[in-house]
Amino acid sequence: MIVGASYYDQGTSRAQVHLRKILDAPGVNAYTLPGNEFLLGKAKEAFDNDGNITNEGTVKFLETCLDNFVKYVGVVSKLKKPKPIEPEDLDCGKPIATTITGVDPDDPDWVEKAAELVGAVSGDTYVKLDHGILTVNQIDMFLKAMPFELTYADDNNQFLYYNNAHQDPDTMFAKRILPQSGSRLSTVHNSLPAARMKNVEWVVGSLRNGNEEYIRTIVPGSPAGVINTHNYQAMYYPDGSYAGINEIVFNFQPWLDWYLQTTGQRLVGGSGPFAPAGGGHGDADATSGASDAGGHGDGGHGDADATSGASN
């Protein structure tokens, strides 16, 4: 959607025409919303002191353009074909700028040895973040207090971090142990049969390609009161390239119960397999739910669905 603002009456109208021609040119691969262009004239007079557009008709027209754009995105998204997924190197064989070399990724003491090698800060040392300053201890406390199990694997498929908030790994929905930090994803998942390892590659490859922004799955076989939910979110560098996977794992049931109680609503009907069945959450893939993952929306992995898992 093309939006512009002009200091006087017209200004950028011709520039918008040129921009549309550029976007429509072969090879650009852009989908440009037909019509619905928005050009705000006399922009210096169009806003109040709070930065809001003063003319109600202009506001209504802009809302119409944006509503049409949202619908257009929904239509165009169905035209986008997913990129073919290349075989993933789960052995960390393609080091990136932040890869710590000199320590075997599968070394059970990787964290301590790698930290010493690069002089990693710790304790009450301050770290400047995107919009704040925290000590390393505060960052640790902040991440451990999250109501999720958090993990991060970089774009070299190295499992770098999890928020170690559980004394007993067997109480986790996606079991993690200290020696795993730093490991190759192939090592983290080494107990999986080849067919399920392919599903791990599919999750990573789909997110790397941008075929999916996130992949969610509900791990089957959880006890009553547990909806074991795994969310895999692609992360990106400032230039937009793939930077790895941020995974959160949590029991969705208490959130659902709270929402229903707070709003006075209730769940009715439905015959899908979402209701938890027998079996503890310890039966889930001990290293990650990725082997059970199906895609979201229409971008799923073949015939897999998010409740039964791609591996079943």
TrEMBL record:
GO terms for molecular function: FMN binding. It holds the Pfam family PAS_10. Residues 271-281 have a biased composition (Gly residues). Residues 271-312 are annotated as: Disordered. It comes from the Bacteria. GO terms for cellular component: cytosol. This is Fumarate reductase, flavoprotein subunit.
